[in-house]
Amino acid sequence: MEATQKNFLNSNKLLKMRRSFNKRNLIERASNLLCHIIIIGIIFLILYPFIEKTLTTFLPYEDLADKTVKYIPKSFGSDNLNTLRWTIGIMDYWKALGNTAILCLVTSLIQVMVCTFVSYGFARFKFPGRGILFATVIVVLMIPPQVIMTSLYMKFSFFNLLGLPTLFTGGTINITEGLWPFVLMSMFAIGFKNSLYIYMLNQFFRGLPTEIEEAGMIDGSNHFGIFFRLMLPNAVPMMVTVFLFAFSWQWTDNYYTSLFLGKSETFKVLTIQLTEIGKYPGSDVIFTPVFKSALNGTGILLTILPLVILYLFGQKFFVQGVSQSGIVG
Amino acid sequence: MKDFQENGSVENLNQDVNMASEVSTSEVQQGTISVAIADIKPAKRSKLSLTTRKNLMGYWFVLPFILGMVLLYIPALIEAFRYSISTIDIVPGSYELNYVGLDNYRHVLQVDPTFIRSIFETTGDLFINVAIILIYSLIMATVLNRNIGGKGFYRALLFLPVIIATGVITEAENTTFTNLSSGSLDIEAGAAIAGGLFSEVDITLLINSLSLSPELTDIVVGAINNIYSIVTGSGVQLIIFLAGLQSISPTVYESATVEGATWWESFWKITIPMISPLILVNMVYTVVDSFTRYGNPVMDGIFELISEAVYTEAAARAFVYLVIVGIIIAAVMAIVNKFVFYENR
């Protein structure tokens, strides 16, 4: 009995071994390997600029000028941090970083709250004119921001919403420099890419069961109560996704930042400071094109470094958010 | 996207209407009962039904958007249109507009030598790029959808450019390159530092030696040279395709295999029809994205005019551009929608 069992096991093993050398299996493995190679190649393409810039950042000045040196510095010492030091100095990095963080946090928090609110209205209430309004959301998504850029700038330069500023100061006020244009646009859900967020959240809310609302109604809650107590807790993952998108797109956006903060001396943000590197009036002896491009590369790295860290932790929300946003099916 | 949306919502609407009618009757009954028992003051009872009252609540929720539209966006849009038909004088505390008719448009369309050319350039590039991005992201999504290890890891890295390779970053990369090429550096070192993976000359020679038509050669060479922007510009599309592929039931493929279909056949007969709505979504997304993307010559031109304070002409350009973008998106949706297969139709 034992012998037969052993025999059986042996044959099973043999079968397995034979199967692994099966022709079909071999093709499968080869094609899987090919897939891995293709993907790794493309990922290398994506990461190459970062790797290259990171390595160039730590080259001392002499090595940058030396054509025989590539990526790996000849000497190690305090000179290796020269590029980094210059970049931080020119960009006024720490101050700009703080400002950008404040700007992005404020705008994206407001945007998430307002867009969730608005999208819930679109998803769950069939009020007259909903179709037209929702079509407007989509149309706004397709209008290039440049179209209204000039007039928006003028609107905020000579700001007079509902005549209130005239009432208090007797004239229009200029609020282009600072957070106000961003806050106002976010509050009214017409900020940067807000239509896209409304669309995503709308699709999400449409997927939630109506029983939740009915239960809330029976228990005597009004619609705002239902929204805040029942719907919001369910929508938290989607809101995190939208928040992360809003935050990181605002971080790298320079339509609105250069429009409203481009000439600002008091509120410097990273995207504007990055363009300062190219304009920096350094002497031609030190600021050779190679050194300038190294500075620029380091500036790019420093600008996106916080985003990369954010992505490392929030990766799940970013990727799943898109696939669960209901755009699909 | 709008058409797709409409189709989707029409189906949902039908369901919703059915459900709504069921719900409304029960709700109305419940409403009357509860009112009858709890509310002793009948005078307070609204004439509107509960469902209507519920739906009117929706206005409160979308109020921020309506206000934004009415107070900021639409006035700004109208204002922009007024700029485009006027000249502008800035006086202290305000500005004055003087009506000049279609002069700005005439200038943009007939006098300005760069605008029309940049529009054609952008549009021409666009058609090729949309095709390449869609094909690339579909292929990558199919590859990722196979059961290979490390799927999550790969997906995360392929999506990375959506977050970081946008706006100013792209622009800064470009300035690096222009700085270099205008500098005293020789081309070889410049290409090495600017991150050129291929030498353009080699590729062109290689493809020329295949003796294809010159147009095709241009497209292929262009695609290879733009491979970085293609890869970085297709993160969202890839994820959408991937999610679409995963939503196709494996039983469909199984039955096809039982019937003797090869992988290639099931790809064309099952995968493509099933994800065709997403092809439309991705197409519109790509078109919108590349029209509003930084580094687009038309956009840069408009931006330059704004920074030189030539607001009127910038507005005229923007409106011409808007009309062209609108026509192209409408055409894309009208044409592609004919080929889209909707499962529930």
Describe this structure in words.
The complex is a heterodimer of chains A (329) and B (345). With 329 residues, chain A is mainly α. Chain A folds into 2 domains: 1-48; 90-324, MetI-like fold (Orthogonal Bundle). Helices cover 74% and strands 0% of the residues of chain A. Chain A has 15 helices and no strands. In chain A, helix 5 packs parallel to helix 9, helix 10 (194-207) packs antiparallel against helix 12 (223-252) and helix 11 (211-218) crosses helix 12 (223-252). Chain A is flat and about 70 Å long. Chain B is mainly alpha-helical and 345 residues long. Chain B has a domain at 107-339: MetI-like fold. Chain B contains 15 helices and 2 strands. In chain B, strand 1 and strand 2 (94-99) form a beta hairpin. The two termini of chain B are 17 Å apart. Classes of the chains: A mainly alpha (329), B mainly alpha (345). Chains A and B meet through helix 2, helix 5, helix 6, helix 7 and helix 9 of A and helix 1, helix 2, helix 4, helix 5 and helix 6 of B.
